[in-house]
Design brief:
The complex is a heterodimer of chains A (239) and B (403). Helices cover 29% and strands 27% of the residues of chain A. By secondary structure, chain A is of the alpha/beta class. In chain A, the strands form two sheets. Chain A has a six-stranded mixed β-sheet with strand order 7-8-9-3-10-11. Chain B has 403 residues and is α+β, with helices and mostly antiparallel strands. Chain B has a domain at 3-43 and 281-402. Chain B has twelve helices and twelve strands. In chain B, strands 1, 3, 4, 5, 6, 7, 8, 9, 11 and 12 form a ten-stranded mixed β-sheet that branches. Chain B has a two-stranded antiparallel ribbon with strand order 2-10. The radius of gyration of chain B is 32 Å and the shape is elongated. Classes of the chains: A alpha/beta (239), B alpha+beta (403).
């Protein structure tokens, strides 16, 4: 289920580190849109600027210039954020990283519950929702296990559950299958697709794994800090 | 969900050991304060318990504890005649160190003015008070003597008839109570040869003077024991203790005594102050400095521990920030652990101290005021030491979890 109204609009996003001789252009004039419920893969070699784009869209870094709009909210116009980024991340963005990065002293259900509690959803309701998510991701039976007791695939599914806990508008995944075998990797990618289509969540995934690309609705490719044209493969120019 | 407690539960043994270490440090801090309070209690114990309103000592001295005081016993008779005084008794104090059962026996001898003072004010936990004018003693349990033991001191043996608890001198020696005459006997115990030589010297001095030539009976008398010679004074005592008559004004008695050129009178409070300011003050400052140093060391160690604990969680903190956790969540994680560490350390210090301090050779007194002030200090150093970890945590960027 893909809805046409844009969930994300990135307009001429650029990120430059340093200045003068030491200036490094990590990303230049990147523009794209994503729709609600769309699952998009972001490809590109190391150093292409994928992670930079992800951190900007994920509201972890600010762009040097350009605009980012999520839904109707203007998030940033240039380097100065227009919203409280941490609060926005808490409410509207879920993250799945290369490593699951679960809190090691919390068990599986508590890791998911934590995401709800920091968004002021606590008590039995939070636990129930966390359990439901774990069960829907087929790791409900490991709810009471600490992360080190889980396999890599199970950990990653708990991380997905955590990312989805607050019903985010946007899920960002940075190489989520890098530590998994091909079967598990594909399962996780399929999971993103299912979640996106079921809940209308927009999912942006950076990946090197070309075997699962058929799962994605769309593929964006970056090179040298620029986004390639989806159809021609040419680097897109500034809008 | 309390993250601090979850983290502690996950690393329980390490956290417990850390709390144990902090607790031991705090126990030493507590002990320093306790040793100081013990010094005060030991110093003022006798003055506060002996039941004297005034201490009459050698003129111009701060005796008998802060410095040596020697006054003739007949001061006692002069004081008895003064209006406003209900009673006066001589008091002798000095330290002796002898061998007993092949072990050194160091004690502070106290002479009690028998029969008025039989030691009825003493906290006797076994046996009884003095029941005879001679050859009995009451010993504090710290001396390790048993009831019925006969301790040789000078030419006599003294039987232990009573045991006290907690009666120690300001230097930590156990107190031993004798009748005044026995105490003087112990203090002025000379060998037979020394006595013979002294008598001979006396006679010799007389024979060199015309009074000796003209009155040979005097020379003969000079060879008698000192106590039989009216020209020689009685042995000196350390002080005379005065008990005021009911309703008598201490100020008026002191005013009268100020006209006596040979003695100085101190009230009980003044005697306490002499001890505390003069004798204990330097030890107090020394212990105070040590205590301050230990508090600083405890704070530094706690800060380092909490900083290390925070460093270990940097990745998790970055993740928490990434998923939007407020700073208060992270601050609470560190601060609650710091407070719990301080609290558990304090509780450990308290109970371990209760067990360990009585084994110390000198008195360690932990009073409520000291406990409260230490609790406040622990609270403060817990918060301050958490500051370093919190500062580090606040500097963590959420994108560190991406690296």
């Amino acid at each position: 289920m893909t809805v046409d109204s844009p969930a994300i609009r990135a307009i001429n996003l650029s990120k430059i580190y340093g200045s003068g001789q030491a200036e490094v252009v990590a990303m230049k004039d990147v523009s794209f849109t994503m729709s609600n419920g769309e699952v998009v893969a972001l490809l590109g070699p190391s150093g292409a600027g994928k992670s930079t784009l992800l951190t900007i869209v994920g509201l972890v870094n600010s762009p040097t210039s350009g605009k980012l709009i999520i839904g109707e909210d203007l998030i940033t116009d240039g380097p100065i954020p227009k919203v409280n980024l941490r609060s926005y991340r808490r409410r509207f963005i879920g993250y799945v990283l290369q490593k699951a990065n679960l809190i090691p002293f919390l068990n599986a259900v508590e890791n998911v519950q934590l995401a709800l509690e920091i968004n002021d959803i606590s008590g039995k309701g939070a636990k129930l929702r966390a359990m439901q998510l774990l069960e829907s991701l087929d790791v409900g039976h490991r709810a009471d296990n600490l992360p080190h007791m889980l396999s890599g695939g199970e950990q990653q599914r708990v991380a997905v559950a955590r990312a989805l806990a607050n019903r985010p508008r946007l899920v960002l995944a940075d190489e989520p299958t890098a530590a998994l075998d091909s079967v598990r990797g594909r399962q996780v990618m399929q999971l993103f697709r299912d979640v996106a289509h079921k809940y209308g969540t927009t999912v942006l995934v950076t990946t090197h794994d070309h075997r699962s690309l058929d799962i994605f609705d769309r593929i964006l490719e970056m090179e040298d800090g620029r986004l390639k044209d989806e159809n021609s493969g040419n680097i897109l120019k500034a809008v | 969900m309390n993250l601090a407690l979850k983290d502690i539960r996950h690393n329980l043994s390490r956290f417990s050991l850390t709390a144990l270490g902090i607790g031991m440090l705090l126990m030493v801090v507590m002990g320093m304060g306790g040793i100081y309070q013990g010094l005060i209690q030991e110093a003022t114990l006798l003055v506060d318990n002996i039941g004297a309103d005034l201490w009459i000592v050698q003129h111009g001295t701060r005796g008998p504890f802060a410095e040596i005081s020697r006054i003739p016993r007949n001061i006692e008779d002069r004081l008895q005649a003064l209006s406003g005084i209900a009673g006066a008794r001589s008091f002798v104090t000095f330290a002796v160190q002898r061998e007993y059962n092949n072990n050194p026996l160091r004690m502070q001898v106290q002479g009690l003015s028998w029969p008025e003072d039989k030691g009825q004010w003493l906290p006797v936990v076994a046996g009884r008070n003095l029941g005879a004018a001679h050859f009995e003693m009451i010993a504090d349990q710290i001396l390790g003597l048993q009831l019925g033991d006969e301790v040789p001191l000078g030419k006599n043996h003294y039987k232990v008839v009573g045991i006290t608890k907690g009666m120690t001198s300001m230097s930590g020696d156990g107190l031993a109570f004798f009748s005044l005459l026995d105490a003087l006997e112990i203090q002025y115990d000379y060998s037979g040869e020394a006595i013979r030589l002294e008598r001979q010297a006396r006679q010799s001095r007389l024979t060199r003077q015309d009074i000796g030539w003209t009155q040979p009976s005097l020379v003969e008398r000079a060879g008698l024991p000192s106590s039989k010679l009216p020209a020689l004074p009685n042995p000196y005592v350390s002080a005379v203790l005065v008990r005021l008559a009911p309703g008598a004004s201490i100020e008026s008695v002191v005013a009268k005594l100020s006209g006596w050129a040979d003695v100085t009178a101190f009230t009980r409070r003044e005697q306490d102050e002499l001890l505390l300011r003069g004798v204990v003050d330097r030890a107090r400052r020394q212990l105070g400095l040590f205590k301050a140093l230990l508090i600083v060391i405890s704070a530094i160690i706690m800060a380092l521990i909490l900083y290390t604990l925070t460093l270990e969680k940097i990745h998790d903190i970055a993740m928490l920030k990434l998923i939007g956790a407020r700073n208060t969540v992270i601050l609470a994680l560190i601060l609650e652990q710091a407070l719990l560490l301080g609290f558990l350390g304090f509780v450990f210090a308290f109970y371990a101290g209760k067990w360990v301090f009585p084994m110390f050779p000198r008195k360690v007194v932990i009073n409520n005021d000291d406990l409260l002030s230490l609790a406040a200090i622990v609270l403060l150093i817990s918060v301050l030491s958490a500051g370093l970890g919190i500062w580090k945590a606040m500097k963590v960027e959420p994108n560190e979890v991406l690296s």
